[in-house]
Amino acid sequence: MTAIAPAPEVPVDGPDWAETRRIVLARDGHRCTSCGIEVVSRDADIHHLLPRSMGGTDEIANLVTLCDGCHAAHHPMLAGGLARRVIERWAFRIARLFGGREDFDALEHLGPALRLFGVERFREGQLAIVQAALQGKSILVVRPTGSGKTLCFQLPAILTPGPTIVVSPLKALMAEQVSTLLRKKVPASFVNSDLSSEEKRLRYGLLRRGAIKLLHLAPERFFVRSEAEKARLSALRPAFLVVDEAHCVDQWGADFRPEYGKLGEIRRQLGNPPVLAFTATAGQEMQARILASLGAQDAEVFVSGVDRPNITLLRWIVPEDSRTAAIAELLRMPLPSGGKAMVFVPSARVGEDLQAALRGFGQDVPLYHSRLGRPFEREQLVKRFTNQSEPVIDRIISTSAFGMGIDVPSLRLVIHWQAPASVEDLMQELGRAGRDGRQSVSIVMHDNASDGRDVKRLRFMADLSGKDQEAPNAAARENRMRKIDQVAAMMREESCYRRQLVDYFGSKVRRRRSLGVRILEWLFAARSRVKRSAHCCDFCDQDTIDAIVPYIQMVLQAETRT
After folding, report:
1. Quick check: 532 and 308 in contact, CB under 8 A?
2. Secondary structure (DSSP) of 494-557
3. Of 18, 79, 187, 542, which is most buried by a Cβ count within 10 Å?
4. Cα–Cα distance between 273 and 269 in angstroms, integer?
5. Is 122 exposed, middle or buried, given 0-12, 13-18 or 19+ CB atoms closer than 10 A?
6. Cβ atoms 454, 447 nearer than 8 A
7. Is 252 left (phi over 0), alpha (psi -120 to 50) or beta?
8. How many CB atoms are closer than 10 A to CB 541?
9. Burial of 22 (0-12, 13-18, 19+ CB in 10 A)
């Protein structure tokens, strides 16, 4: 064995560790110094002769090459973790062998990356999404809120050289995601209008020096007046352009926040990085419009979680002047232990009228909407409904302003005062129910008319939303009206309500998986099993739907298993 002169101390987690490994392996002849077995470079373990906890240093003279088995023998207290690493290494070798033409190299460090985020296994469907992203593909993911979409872009960002730009619609959402990443010691930041010029300059400087891995921005940030800031952003060459809450591209890009419609232009400025777009709800037509706007028509689309098997889906014909009494009766029902109920209303005005009318039935139900006096009031109401603040409330009236990404797992009953303005909005609202996998109910009240008061109200509100613009977009207005008509038709259609929703969003296509992918799924992925309710929808259970309140009580009291 050739002697090598002592080298200066090198930090194990420093940038020169790869060179340190190479020197130690070369010195030891690529063999385990304990048992003599030959080791492959990427599988070799570098062991401290004198542990750092006992004063040992990271200098090369204190490092030796060991195989997996001998390394585990030296660290009996860490044998479980070391054994897991061995299993992961061999699984990747086998996956490469049986993976056909698939590239598994980018997935080799999935195990440590998952553990960085405090996760042992992927949820169902996440591994395929991460694999596609790491292979450099553009993707569009449609998954329910609370199903782990965020991990699907954070993990590829960590495993890919270079920064990732995350386009996010809300300042609160940016701050929450960045705070979560920083707690996990992942370098992330955001830039928005609340920051001082000096703070922005510091953050852009860190980004330029490679000190920030994920930078969160609103799309308007690329169109600010500051030429210096626009130049900094245009000079970026990110690994990925992530579009969180991607339905905003279609719903807001036409007139409400037009910068969302210019993300394709932004992508070209950034050097056309792969687009990773995520939303909780987008039908097949909206999916196509989002990808066309982003210039990513060749993206791979992943749709899952549309069919929520534990939610019984009901449409109930109720005249408008009878809805308060019907809602009062529904809210009076006893819910399973810890269960909550939410009533969605189309506007704050309707919510205020409903709230006042419910008081006549002896029910004081809080109302959440965007016009509440102070942000503190909205925040406190959310905390009370999510059991984070006292006094806890278990019934609430809300407009669609009840924050993106807010998760209430024990929501058992979702009542829609009327059908929403699009199937996407309908899915977003009913999808809040039963996120813990337990039996829940969504019920939509409607007047069963193609041109009744429900539809007229939505059309009036849709027209108001377009009048704020200097040049109202006729195509956008036509699209809003068509969506209203689609929901109204779905309410009247005499067929399985659940099947209509699944078909609208696109049935899940089972992709053929190589043996290599199946091996990685066995190692890293979990299969979630939610018990399907025996009660599908009002069409499939027509014989019992007449007695609506006793029926819902029966459904909610049914025994369930996650």
Report:
1. no
2. -S-HHHHHHHHH-PPP-----HHHHHHHHHHB-----PPPS--BTTTTTTTTTSHHHHHHHHHH
3. 187
4. 10
5. buried
6. yes
7. alpha
8. 15
9. exposed
What is the gyration radius of the CA atoms in the chain, in angstroms?
Answer: 27
Token look-up 């940038």 returns 15
At residue 189, φ and ψ (nearest 5 deg) are -160, 175
**Token digits of residue 82:** 């070391």
Can you give the three-state secondary structure of 405-449, one letter per residue? CCCCCCEEEEEECCCCCCHHHHHHHHCCCCCCCCCEEEEEEECCC
Q: Please indicate, yes or no, whether the overall pTM of this predicted structure exceeds 0.90.
A: no
CATH class of 105-303: alpha beta
Q: How confident is the model at residue 511 (pLDDT cuts 50, 70, 90)?
A: low
Angle of helix 79-98 versus helix 515-524 axis, rounded to 10: 160
Distance CA 502, CA 308 (A): 10
User: Please, are residues 241 and 217 in contact by the beta-carbon 8 Å criterion?
Assistant: no
Side-chain-facing half-sphere of 209: CA atoms under 13 Å: 7
The residue type at 417: W
Give, for 363, the enclosing helix (H) or strand (E): none
Q: Which residues pair with 414 in a beta bridge?
A: 342, 442
Look at 97-106, 135-144, 255-264 and tell me which has the smallest mean pLDDT: 97-106
Give the whole-angstrom CA distance, residue 91 versus residue 482. Answer: 50
Contacts of 248 (CB under 8 A, 6+ apart): 169, 257, 260
Percentage, residues of the chain above pLDDT 70? 83
Angstrom distance (rounded) from CA 141 to CA 282: 9
Instruction: Read off the amino acid at residue 336.
Output: P
Q: Which residues contact 108 (CB under 8 A, 6 or more apart)?
A: 92
Instruction: Decide if pLDDT at 562 tops 50.
Output: no
| CATH number belonging to the domain at 311-496+536-557, selected among 3.40.430.10, 3.40.50.300, 3.40.190.80, 3.60.20.10 | 3.40.50.300
The candidate with the shortest Cα–Cα distance to 535, out of 314, 340, 335, is: 314
How many residues make up the chain in this entry? 562
Domain ranges of the chain: 17-74, 105-303, 311-496+536-557
Q: What is the DSSP string of 292-354?
A: HHHT-TT-EEEE---S-TTEEEEEEE--GGGHHHHHHHHHHSPPSTT-EEEEE-SSHHHHHHH
* Structure-token pair, residue 433: 């129910």
**CA–CA–CA angle 83, 87, 92 (5° rounding):** 150
Q: For residues 432 and 236, give the distance between their C-alpha atoms in angstroms, rounded to a whole number.
A: 37
For 415-460, what is each residue's pLDDT tens digit? 999 999 999 889 888 888 888 888 899 999 999 888 889 999 988 8
Tokens standing for residue 152: 């699907």
Work out whether the CA dihedral 447, 452, 457, 463 comes out positive or negative: positive
Residues 478 and 484: their CA atoms lie apart, in Å, by 10
Residue for token pair 């245009």: 234
Q: 214-259: per-residue pLDDT in tens?
A: 999 988 888 887 888 888 888 889 999 999 888 888 877 666 678 8
Token digits for 50? 């004198």
